[in-house]
Amino acid sequence: MNFDSFDLNPRLLANVAALGYTAPTPIQEQAIPPVALGRDVMGLAQTGTGKTAAFLLPIINKLLDAPIEARPKIKALIVAPTRELAQQIADASRDLTRQTKIRTITIYGGVALSPQTRNLHAGAHIVVACPGRLLDHIGQGHVDLTNLTTLVLDEADHMFDMGFLPDIKKILSHLPKERQTLLFSATMPGDIRRLAQEILRNPATVSIGRSAPADTVSHAAYPVRADLKTALLLNLIGGAKDGSVLVFTRTKHRAKRLAGQLERAGHKATSLQGNLSQRQRQAALDGFRDGAFRVLVATDIAARGIDVTRVAHVVN
């Protein structure tokens, strides 16, 4: 199967090809048809399976087929648990809508409210938002959701872990009753199942099984002072002569700084963190997959899109 099978707009297909995507992933094969038909969808899939494109492609395709408006109205709302994930989704949307009139904006906390307010007043077709800041804008009357047709709750399990369930329910109370709802989650605990039963109408269920962990995995723990961690890491990587290395850090600044230190020490290293554009992110992943980089340093959040097999060493 290829992307032509989904009867996508030619401009969208061209953008897909420009991004280097040649064949749909299993979650895309399963999810795109029911989303395109307007059905609610409950998707159970790990990160790194291509689920972002699984909901973006049919949403964008529908927008491309609609009449052009002088001032765009919000048609799709994508709710994500973190700023980093919201940025990643928005970057992917902008890449897929190049040379079109579709406008995507992000709404998240930690930055000034006024630029986001101006963006909302200018109009957008797709809004990618974190729950708290979205409610701030709703409360101040900055967001018009009366024309919304599609709601996406992405990484629902992560949102529940972060205590966003009350915020999600408040957001739902401001949305049109007649809408398409898509819920994606890596796991399906009871709270999420109950919410799915409340908000999804006769949903199509798509599920991609978890990859089994390798039976050859071994673990080691190294108690070390914070000021000696980088030296220990350099020693470990230097001693592991063969195979690729995936290093996880807590912050994006640490990921970028550590990748630079590894490069200066003679290792082929790159970082994957929230400040990267979708193209830069893809280049880092592709370079790691094809061996141009031996070491990939990633934040925990940015790594929620990694799908790389045969990694020899993982360091937390």
Map the helices and strands.
Elements: H1 10-18, H2 26-36, E1 41-44, H3 51-64, E2 76-79, H4 83-96, E3 104-107, H5 113-122, E4 126-129, H6 131-139, E5 150-153, H7 156-161, H8 165-173, E6 180-185, H9 190-199, E7 204-207, H10 229-239, E8 245-249, H11 252-264, E9 269-272, H12 278-290, E10 295-299, E11 313-315
Parallel strand pairs: 1-6, 1-7, 2-4, 2-5, 3-4, 5-6, 8-10, 8-11, 9-10
Describe this structure in words.
The chain is an alpha/beta fold. It has two domains: 3-207, P-loop containing nucleotide triphosphate hydrolases (Rossmann fold); 226-315, Rossmann fold (3-Layer(aba) Sandwich). It contains twelve helices and eleven strands. The strands form two sheets. It has a seven-stranded parallel beta sheet, with helices on both faces. A four-stranded parallel beta sheet has the order 9-10-8-11, sandwiched between helices. Strand 3, helix 5 (113-122) and strand 4 form a beta-alpha-beta unit. Helix 2 packs parallel to helix 3 and helix 3 crosses helix 4. It is globular and about 60 Å long. The protein starts with 9 loop residues before the first helix and ends with a strand. The model has no long low-confidence stretch (mean pLDDT 90).
